[in-house]
Amino acid sequence: MLNLRVRPAVNRVVDPVAGGLLRAGVSPDAVTVAGTVAAVTAALVLLPRGAFVLGPALITLAVLTDLLDGAMARRRPRPSLFGAWLDSTCDRVADAAIFSGLALWFAGDGDDRLLLSLVLFCLVSGAVVSYAKARAEGLGLRCDVGLAERAERLILVLGGVALAGLGLDAALAVALWLLAAASAVTVVQRLLEVRRQATARDAGPAS
Predict the structure, then answer these.
(1) Mean pLDDT over all residues of the chain?
(2) How far, in Å, are 1, 21, 79, 182 from residue 12 at the CA level?
(3) What pLDDT was estimated at residue 39?
(4) Could you tell me the pLDDT band of residue 2, with boundaries at 50, 70 and 90?
C-alpha cells in the first residue's frame, strides 16, 4: 500500500545512484547481500543490547538498499530470475533478524514475557503474510492486498524501537500490538482474496 504511494518520489532519488553503481561494475545481487548482512548484524548485535536509537538507524539504512538494488535491476536489459529470488529471500532473512533481536532483548535484559510473545507472533505472522503472497503467485494468482505489507511492518517496528530508545518506553509496546493486529488482518485479507480468485478460476470453463 505504502510502496505504491512513495515509490515514484523515491525512484527519482535512487535511480541516479543505481546508474552510477552499475557503471562502476557493482551488481544488484552484491548490493542485496551487503544490505542484508548489514541489517542482520545491526539487528542481532545492537537490539539485544537495548541500543534502540543506533540499532534502528543502522537497520533502516541497510534496509533502504532494497530500493537501490531494485532500481539497479530495472536498469538491466533483462530481468534476473535469481536476483528476484535472492532479493525476496534476503528480505525474509533481514525481517527475521530484526524480530529475533527484539526477542533476545525481551528474553534477556528487557525481561518481558508478554512482549516477547508479541514479538514472536509478529515474526510468525509476518512470515505468513509474505508466504501467502508468494504461494498465490506460484499458483498464478495475484495477492497484492493487505493492510500491512513489508514497508508498513518495518516502519511500525523500527519506529517503535526508535521512540523507545528516545525515552517513550510505551511506544514499542504500542507498535508491536498494532503490528500484530495489522498482520493478522492482512493474513485474513489475503486468504479471502486468494479464495475469491481461486473460486472464480475453478468455476470457469475447463480448458
Answers:
(1) 90
(2) 19, 15, 21, 30
(3) 97
(4) very low
Look at residues 173, 190, 43, 157 and name the one whose alpha carbon lies nearest to residue 110: 173
* Helix 28-46, helix 54-63: angle, nearest 10: 160
Cα 57 to Cα 47, 49, 73, 167: the distances in Å are 11, 15, 25, 16
**Domains identified in the chain and CATH numbers:** 2-201 (1.20.120.1760)
User: What is the greatest pairwise CA distance in the chain?
Assistant: 62
Catalytic one among 91, 95, 109, 112?
91
Among 97, 115, 101, which Cα is nearest to 170's?
115
pLDDT of 124 reads 96
CB 48 within 8 Å of CB 105: yes
* Closest C-alpha among 149, 26, 9 to residue 67: 9
pLDDT tens, position by position, 128-163? 999 999 999 999 999 988 888 888 899 999 999 999
Three-class DSSP category at 192: helix
> What DSSP letter does each residue of 153-188 carry, written as one string?
HHHHHHHHHHHHHTT-HHHHHHHHHHHHHHHHHHHH
The answer to whether residue 91 is catalytic is yes
In 3D, which of 152, 148, 145, 151 has the Cα closest to residue 195?
145
The three cell numbers of residue 99 are 524480530
